[in-house]
Amino acid sequence: MASGSGVVDLADVPSVDLMTELLRRMKCASKPDRRLIFIGPPGSGKGTQSPFLKDEYCLCNLATGDMLRAAVAAKTPLGLKAKEAMDKGKLVSDELVIGIIDEAMKRPSCQKGFILDGFPRTVTQAEKLDQMLEKRGTKIDKVLNFAIDDALLEERITGRLIHPSSGRTYHSKFAPPKVPGIDDVTGEPLIQRKDDTAAVLKSRLEAFHKQTEPVIDYYSKKGIVTNLHAEKPPKEVREEIEKAIK
Question: Residue ranges of the Adenylate kinase active site lid domain (predicted)?
Answer without folding.
Answer: 160-195
